[in-house]
Amino acid sequence: MSNVMTQNAPASPMKAAVAKIISRSEPGTSGFGTTVREALKRVSDVIAPVWPLRDYVAVNPYAGLSANSFLEARSLLQSFSDCETLMGIEYYRDAYREGRFTADDIAESIKELAEQQITTSLDAQDICDLLAQNSNSENPGIREQKVQPRLRTIAEIATTSHSIDWSEAIRDEVSKHCAAHYDEGESVWASPVAHLSLYQAWRTVAPHDRNIEILGLRGIRQFIAKMPAMPETAITELLTRLNVPQPLWSSFLLCQAFSIPGWSAWTKYQTNWKGNAPVSNDSFSESDLVGLLAIRLAYDVALAESESIEIDLSGLVDKNWPAGGGRTNGNEEAVVRLVLLRASEIAFRNNLLDSMSEKPFSPHHEPSDLASPPQRKLAQMVFCIDVRSERIRRQLESLSDQIDTLGFAGFFGMPIQSVSIGQTTGDAHVPVLIKPKFKLHEGLPHQEHEPSVISKRKQTRTWRQTWNEYSTSGIGCFSFVESTGLLYGWKLASRAFGKAGSNDHRYDAVPDHKRDQLGPTLRGLNHQGITLTQQADLAESMLRNMGLTEDFASLVVFCGHASQTDNNPLAAGLDCGACGGHSGEPNARLAAMLLNQHSIRTILASRGIMIPDDTHFVAGLHNTATDSITFFHVDDVPESHRDHVQQLTEIADNASEQTRLERLPIVASDTVEKLIQRAGDWSEVRPEWALAGNAAFIVAPRSLTRDVNLNGRSFLHSYDWQQDPEGKILESIMTAPMVVAHWINMQYYASTVDNAHFGSGCKTVHNVVGRFGILSGNGGDLMTGLPWQSVHTGSAYQHAPMRLQVIIAAPLESIDRVLQKHLPVAELVEGGWLHLVAIHNGVSYQRAPSGDWSAMPSAMPSACNTVN
After folding, report:
1. Quick one: pLDDT band at residue 366, thresholds 50, 70, 90?
2. Helix (H, G, I), strand (E, B) or coil at 254
3. Strands (E) located in 550-591
4. pLDDT value for 511
5. Burial classification of residue 451, based on how many CB atoms lie within 10 Å of its CB (0-12 exposed, 13-18 middle, 19 or more buried)
6. Beta 696-700 vs 804-809: how paired, if at all?
7. d(Cα 624, Cα 562) in Å, to the nearest integer?
8. Adjacency order of strands within the sheet including 519-520
9. Could you give the CA distance from residue 406 to residue 546 in angstroms, rounded to a whole number?
10. N or C of the chain: less Cβ packing under 10 Å?
11. What is the mean pLDDT of the chain?
12. How far apart are CA 639 and CA 631, in angstroms?
């Protein structure tokens, strides 16, 4: 008799959406359903979604476990999977030797965790001795591990006694069916059953597929043909046939889901997030996520019956399994690794606070505003809170005291669907958790020129599509290469050296002299119900939420951001996450257009926001790969502001150059020219580091961080609590941008700590599947997280995995009110998923998971002299 239990194998709308993705799961067995529907709901809660490539954005893979503490979540994950959430001791051994944290940090970490009932028999000196040992040494002093048993799939059990890797074989079968079913045009022959649900399509096609039967899974076709028509019914029958105890149904189904985590994440997106439509109980039972679980479970049951494998799980039906309710679970090595993680976070936090405390800070005014009367600025530039904005903001301010910068969500509060010229639908340039409210149509200033451009564009794209179909077809591909291959030699060489130029088809059929004029227009907004009053509402909300309601500069620039890369399926992951994995350009241009309208300024004046007549709003775009800044519609700037724009352009060009020079050692480029070439090199696996290194989210006036080198590791959101007496703006920040920053942080963390489960492996073997996702090689599971090249240089980690350090300059009671009102956000703090520090009246306070605040010393020792 085989037993599945074995030892571990070796090594606003936005607020509603936030509540939707942060699961209300409970630790231990108390959250496990006792009916199939409840079990399936529990499984669905734990699984995080993955978005398609065109909208690829960061997702916290642990989101469904965030109601548990960080260590409890690890125990739960390891009760049904081999997932890891902690770096190994060897990683921290190297960090300790490099001086990234000290014995004092370890001692503080041990004390802090002990207050949470997480204890170890080792003291700080014992752990320092452990870190000083050679890497090939044992770990003496650590008590013998009590590794909890975990559930395993039938395929895993069968693989141990067969020459066939049944886990891989079944994964490939599931992947084959899913790829064909969800194909969006990559395949020449579309699936004839794509109109059916995933489960129904599989039941229709799989009985005719002999592949896995030839491999050795006897009778599988007849097995599938006899399965119930409804996936929920099938799951009930299959669990019964395996004799899985009812209290363990959700755990066993989670084991199934985590054997194909990529496709589980994709079907979770299809079920809960595609279209953002609510899912009813009836539709959920027939959803593709439930269908996928039925498919995966079917292969396991068929294999068990074919190979006469029996399992006995009755011994696990007690309150001590899974061991999510405990804190240490008898695993001292895990606790030591958690101590080291927290020590590295404490060192970073102390260093960050020290660097900020060295600056004079007034809670009432920016430093430049202390003089009377205040000098009017040349420009106020609003950037996305993205960590990549920190470097160029710092350079701009260092080059001119006439420039102030602010941080705000990169979609600038403009909930748009950006529609290209000649199209009727487009991409949603909003956070993926909310729906766009209206379409923003692209066009030319002179509308009479558009018909010819649209006609020529259709011809160009039709020809390109025809040519691509011929060159990749089964009939034409070989003759195509033989006859025209040499003609592509120059193009191949140019692309190899990053000289080929942009591969962007946005300007198809648009004459060169009109390309600068192509952009979003305000046409059709009234027809969509977006009246002048509602446009003013958007503008007012944006200005108030970013704290820009007075003292306007001569120029106010909304600077969106986008990346530039070639031959990169995951390119959307380098663009603006607040814009749904797209450029922030149309959002910035719309914001500027709205505020340059006299009618909207009149409405805003009646609401208390007085914008001077001589303030002009400009849109810009920060290219994060080359750090260049482009300003739009500069020819439309009033004559009175032309010199100001020229002056700002020169400062921005210098700031871009300084930022590129700062980034040279980070991207391992010898010259600025080589750094810029990376953006157009189709063989470059690291065109930029994106958000690698992110570690902090700072909500404060810019005066708190201005002139501080944060080394591109901090999200910066502008906020002045004195302009927010009711705390509504703070509530919006903590329930939306802060949570999104946490997701980004957790995606990078998980992709670094366990790339096999939560990352996407090596970029060089990625293959696009169905135009919506990627596979590693020619099969296997759908990849979900970041590739290894996004977190590792090839010789060292570029991303230091640590949980987000949030710093908020606001009264403690204001922060507490938000946490008391929004339990899912409070759980992130109380469960140790992020850490919270408040700064008020010049004093820093740390919030413990218990909810208590404690004042921190004004000067703290740190392992380093700079924020690195």
Report:
1. very low
2. helix
3. 555-562
4. 86
5. exposed
6. parallel
7. 6
8. 427-429, 416-419, 438-443, 519-520
9. 8
10. N
11. 89
12. 16
